[in-house]
Specification:
single chain; alpha+beta; D-Maltodextrin-Binding Protein, domain 2; 2 domains; eight-stranded mixed sheet; elongated
Length: 185
């Protein structure tokens, strides 16, 4: 009887050890499966639904040299980490949201500005249209759901991050990934 009491009185300690162990192994897993910003390209999409892993795997098929991984995340992935969103290399955002994200966006390079319809805010061109709401067509539509939820149909634009090291500062990997993304069905 005393053994049973001792066991049940120790349950909080066992639970604490289980939680600490889980956190430790999650940290180790993150260290093993992640890399530095210089070796990965990160895409954030403010869309109703995104096949994150499948899109990342598809984009990794044509990774530029020096890049070890491509990450694709919906904005909901960063629900409470606003500072992290500024570290993205590529963004997919609605045209009406460009003004609110403009501080994180780099001006669209001239090579992209001539490829199709663009969006500007305060005289600066920020994005290339990736989804046309009128025709309901867009790039990577088998991975990205542009309509649905409580959002009205709207054009989406591919933009580049102002803090990205892959938009010419270190290399041009973000442009290569953007080209691959624009070519996907």
């Amino acid at each position: 009887m005393q053994y049973v009491r001792r066991f049940f009185s120790s349950i909080p300690k066992y639970l604490l050890w289980a939680v600490l162990s889980t956190l430790f192994w999650m940290w180790i897993f993150t260290l093993i499966t992640n890399t530095t910003a210089e070796k990965k390209v990160v895409l954030y999409a403010d869309v109703p639904a995104l096949e994150d892993p499948a899109l990342a795997v598809k984009l990794e098929e044509s990774m530029p040299e020096g890049i070890k991984m491509v990450k694709a995340h919906a904005f909901s992935y960063l629900m409470f980490i606003d500072a992290e969103i500024a570290g993205g290399d590529l963004y997919i955002v609605r045209g009406s949201d460009i003004p609110s994200y403009s501080e994180n966006l780099a001006p669209l390079p001239a090579a992209y500005a001539v490829r199709g319809e663009t969006v500007s805010h305060e005289g600066v061109t920020y994005g290339l249209r990736i989804y046309d709401a009128a025709s309901k067509t867009g790039a990577a539509s088998s991975y990205i759901t542009y309509t649905g939820g409580d959002r009205e149909a709207e054009d989406y634009y591919l933009c580049f991050g102002i803090s990205s090291v892959h938009c010419g500062e270190l290399d041009e990997a973000a442009f290569a990934i953007a080209d691959t993304l624009l070519s996907l069905q």
